[in-house]
Amino acid sequence: MRAKRLAKLQAGSTSNPATPSPGPSSSTPVAHPKQKPPPIPPQSTTPGPPQCNVPLKRKSAPPVPKVDYQTWENNTISTVLKKSTAEATEYDLVWLKHLQAELESEAHMILTSDIVDRPLITRLELDAQAMSDDPEYVSVLASLPPQSVFEYLVGCWKCINTAKSTLLKKNPVSETQQATALLDKLRDLIISYTGLNLQEPEMFPQPADRPLSTLGSHELLTPMLSLSALSMPPVQPFLQDLAARFTDQDELLNTLSTLVCILVVHSLIIPSEGIGRSGGGSTWCGVIGGMEALMITRMPQWLGEGFGVEVMAMNFERLSRMRPLLRLGTFSRESPGIAQTYLSNPTKCSCADVDSSNASLRGTLSPPSSKSLTSSWEARERVLEYFVAVVCLNVKRAEMQVEPDTVALDSFMVNLQSVLLRFAEPFMDASYTKVYPYYFSVSTRIDLKEEMRIKATSNEAVQWVEESKPKAATPNFISDIFYLCNAHYGYIHMIQVYEDLGKTLDEYQRHHDMVAGDGSWMGMRQLSAYCVQLLDPELVFQYIGFTSFASTWLIWSVDPRGMHPNPVVELPLLKDVPMTFRVLPKFIIEDVVEFFLHSPESLDLSGKDELVIFALTFLTSTWYIMNPFLKAKINKVVFYGVLLYGNDRHGVLGHTLNTHPVALKNLIPALTSLLMVFSSEVEQTGASSQLCDKSNTMRNITYILKAIWDNPIHRDALNKEAQNVNKFIWFINLMINNVTYLMDKSLSELTQIHNIQTEMCALCGLERHASGYTTLGRSTAILLKDFTAETKGPFMMPEIMDKLAAMLDYNLNALHATLEYYTLYFIYLSPTCKMVIKMRWGPLA
């Protein structure tokens, strides 16, 4: 077996020989030592005449004298291989006496590229434990460095890099092309024998004091696990040279499979303390850089199979080959030491210190490169299988209440989402037609049986799949990545976990003094640890780009012309909803909304226009979405966008809503339609919270209208909308109902507060509710005043005038006990409301 491997290597090295060097020169003896250059005579120090103080020109460095190629070739081979055919030589070179005799008999007086493999094999076959009758040869064996074969070959590889750098910088020979070819041949030869040593460490003699179980791949494991996070490790270029040499996938797999197996199961990669242990995570940074060069997609157990245990969501990341790359994180469940080590007291640290700690931690989280995982079609398919397996095993992460022990780790899922976003980057600026709309009719990668659709029942979805299968084509890789990115089990789920944790901490903060009565709780460390990974600027920016792409693609899929965003879709959309859109899972729209609800400030970077068009598309065409609460969520995103942010009085979306042509044309009709449709649909649900839901939606609309009220174009749009009398009367009727409900709730709860103040029962809760209802009621009453002042006609209609007067009368009667409240309320009435009251009951006292 060993002879076959050597023959194969020799055949490979001779099939592509380097540029032949000139023949040996007889004037250059082999064993003669190098002559020292003659001493340079000292320069005269006699001072010259005084000179004026002027800047001296910098002398150019003298040109390096060129060396004849034969000498350079011989010296380079000897230096790289650390051996010589001369007895009198430098201390770190090994004298190959027998090879010297063979070469002299063949008239090879110096070493050349044609015979470079012979001294290497001879050096590798030297055995320090061997016996010999030749005293000179015994001394050579006794002086061998205590190195393993792997250490010797790696030393040769480093010498090649040094020689290559010297050649490029100093150019010591004129025959640069021949010199480069020689170094490339040496590198190829060294890497070839390194691969053989990784597979079979016993092929060549090894030190007697080194057990065979610690040699070969184990020797490469040690430097990978001891690299500093701040150094530039040579492991990755070394592995890349291995991958370049063993272009045959089977050869590379045989060479590196043992190393990958050791890496995956090694206990030092992910210790129990996570990356927050002492040492700053220095032991695994080399693994991240090195494993990207390995063909791990072709490894056995790539999907966690073959270990004799059932592969489930909670153990998949521990069994699969991507474990070392995707389990790194800062979340408290898998890395409890992070919060204690880096974020011990985040509430008392300065923002600069917190940002510095976060940046340091984020710098250690390096997901694998997408190029290294999809270098071939076969690798691409294996990667897709991996992603699909993770998604299918973690369906439970979409549930309201998730048992942590039944799903994968949070950091594993977020890192996987980050990898998917990197895959999606190349097609973000491409045509939206690249994403296949019939994907779910032919692809079984993502199971949607338990998912709600945007506007289709389960039976309709099944029927659509059966009808579309015959004419559907095989989806491309871009479509696979797009729909896998939309699977909401990673980043979006962690956003919800983060917000729930924040709410829980707020409750603890209000009701318990957890630490020495200072009002702070240790759990703030956990919240800060979540921020490190979830608020990573690079990850957030990637998700903004993908979310903008996904929202634009959704609109393109329903555009009758199929040309959005160039030109922008015409609103409202057609009444006929395309079936390809109806059967899409609801979470595709919901995830777009959830991301911007979580971080509306991210719109300050990009995505404002895309979000406004997305929201107005489905608010003006509410029949495209079946779930009323999803429509309200879309409106809520716009509401968040007009809240005060920095110096923007109307938030990050205020300027866009007041300037974008689509908003100027469609915002007012969208808001009026939404309130009517949502109120009607939420009543059909029969939910006990429908009045509160309607009030919240009205509150959101109120704030949006405040942000655009001073814009004359929007005011003209409101007057135009008022010409549709039936629709506008319905809208006003809902506003009046809302004011009645809010005022009734606020006044009744104010009364309750007065009655139970002495008992102090549920005082805090009632005060929060009363203040909320009072604020909402006041803002809605002011909005009603503005509407009656601007559009008087509809309020004078018989069917609305009686109801408006009754509402005002009801609230005035409720307030009559306190003249102060009565006067205050009457001040906010517009002239139209006062006229209605006077026409109904006469002048007010």
TrEMBL record:
Annotated Pro residues bias: 36-52
State the compartments where it is located.
Nucleus
Pathway involvement of the protein, from the record: Protein modification; protein ubiquitination
* BP terms from Gene Ontology: ERAD pathway; protein polyubiquitination; ubiquitin-dependent protein catabolic process
Q: Where is the Ubiquitin conjugation factor E4 core domain?
A: 324-815
Where are stretches of biased composition, namely Low complexity?
A: 11-32
Q: Which GO terms describe its cellular component?
A: cytoplasm; nucleus; ubiquitin ligase complex
Q: Which UniProt keywords apply?
A: Nucleus, Transferase, Ubl conjugation pathway
- What Pfam families has UniProt attached to this entry? Ufd2P_core
* Domain of life assignment: Eukaryota
**Residues covered by region (Disordered):** 1-67
GO molecular function annotation: ubiquitin-ubiquitin ligase activity
Q: What is this protein called?
A: Ubiquitin elongating factor core-domain-containing protein
Taxonomy, top ranks, is: Eukaryota, Fungi, Dikarya, Basidiomycota, Agaricomycotina
